[in-house]
Amino acid sequence: MKFPLFLFLVVIVNTSVSSQNKQFIYGFQDIPQSLLENPGGEIFFDKHIGIPFLSGVYVNVGTNNSLITGLFTNNGVAINNKFQNIIHSLRTKDFFNVNEQFDIVNIGYRLRNEKDYLSFGIYQELDFFSYYPKDIAILFYEGNTDGNGNTDLNSTYALNDANVKGEMIGVFHAGISRQVSSKLTIGARAKLYSGVFNFQSHHNNGLISARLDQGNNIQHFINNVDFTFNSSGFSKLDNKNISNNVIKNLFVGGNLGLGFDVGFTYRLKDNMTLSASLLDLGFISYSNDVNTYKIKGDVEINGIGVIDPPTDNTLDYWENLNIDFHSQIPIDTLHSTYLSFRSPKINTSFMYKFGRYNSSLACNNSSKLNNKIYKNEVGIQSFFIFRPIKPQMATSLFYTRRLSNIFKAKIMYTADAYTFSNIGLGFSSQLGKFNVFAAADNVFGYSNIYSTKKISFSFGMNLVFE
């Protein structure tokens, strides 16, 4: 099946990018990767070297609706009926999501002036995002019927809800955190993006309707349509050298972009801090292997149907459907450069520390940077990510406890678009110069994987030198 037809069908089964909220890592000063969430974070060690490919791994899969539960619950309902119920019950603002990120290289060290901490590295990120295009999904699943097999020529279907974006990128970054005073630390990070592949479609318009012609055949009309689908990097993924092409594009393969992060941490008191960061304000220019599909104006379609493909000769069915689709819909295919803007993110946090911890930890750089070790930390963190329809938000309450010289644990409660009962757990351990951390979100959801709306985990290993 060729790509132009796929862009219409993908909306039925698409997945999307998650909120990317790393509430465990943000503000966790023992973890070097916290600088990726706030370049203005306080750092109390002199150097770190991430274990290649294992220094920071993050995976997040989720949905804000009951899609998984509706499909896999064993309630005696046929799968076709389940799917039909889901098609109608989901809302246009529902979304599905997948996000993955891991460090390839992550290194940092304190400069001689002792106030600046320089960090740099490379990480890979995979992102998908889509709202649920309800009208299009119903049209392609049921055609011109009312769901019970009866012809329905009274409904109109909108293309406006087609909002989808996906990409894989490599990110080269370098940042600096500066202690301006005993109270204020600021930081910034520059990023060079390298796009492996991308597809996106936003801000579409058009209405689909139907009527009977003189021969009693159904005709479809797409009125005032303005539909654009951008893609880059897909033709090279079809050949036998897919891994080589992915690696090449991951490391500055031609689709390049720029971005930056900024952040700060401010001490209201020795045991009370405010912090905030703005991440991924930038863009990528896609110029290699570009295909942009555009439909504009008024289109008339005769007799295309995609419902109930035959069980035999399925490939021939889809190929014939694709030929019919191309013959009737005037699609302009362009190969010009287009821009893909990143989704900016904002973090804010307030933290209160209590219970002084008198140990050998309160020495070296800790005293140099006026860091007093406390047993407990409590606070609140907010996260925003900007989306085409509206920003998504998450708020977390957290409690961190230093259990020993080498072990620190954190528990989080998060309310977001997925659920209001998200409990997360994590830990960081310092064994000599070896630091390891791990965290899992929505831990109670693992008991019934089909009913949970979100699964998120992260872990990493670093060498940290004080």
How does this structure look, described?
The protein is mainly beta and 466 residues long. The chain has a single domain, classed as Porin, CATH 2.40.160.40. 15% of the residues lie in helices and 48% in strands. It has eight helices and 21 strands. The protein has helices spanning 3-13, 34-37, 67-72, 79-89, 134-142, 242-250, 314-328, 365-368, and strands spanning 47-50, 57-63, 95-110, 116-131, 157-158, 164-179, 184-201, 205-212, 218-232, 256-269, 272-286, 290-302, 332-334, 338-341, 345-356, 374-385, 392-402, 407-415, 422-431, 434-441, 454-465. It has a 21-stranded antiparallel β-sheet that branches. A hairpin with a 2-residue loop joins β10 and β11. It is elongated.
Give a summary of the structure in a few sentences.
15% of the residues lie in helices and 48% in strands. It contains eight helices and 21 strands.
Number of domains: 1
Average pLDDT figure: 81
* CATH topology term: Porin
**Structural class designation:** mainly beta
Distance between the termini: 57 Å
What would you report as the Rg, rounded to the nearest angstrom? Answer: 25 Å
Q: How many strands appear in the DSSP assignment?
A: 21
Estimate the strand proportion.
Answer: over 45%
The CATH architecture term is Beta Barrel
- Give the biggest beta sheet: 21 strands, antiparallel
Estimate percent helicity: 10-25%
Question: Number of helical runs?
Answer: 8
Highest CATH level, the class? Mainly Beta
CATH H-level superfamily title: monomeric porin ompg
Low-confidence stretches: 1-19, 360-368
Shape: elongated
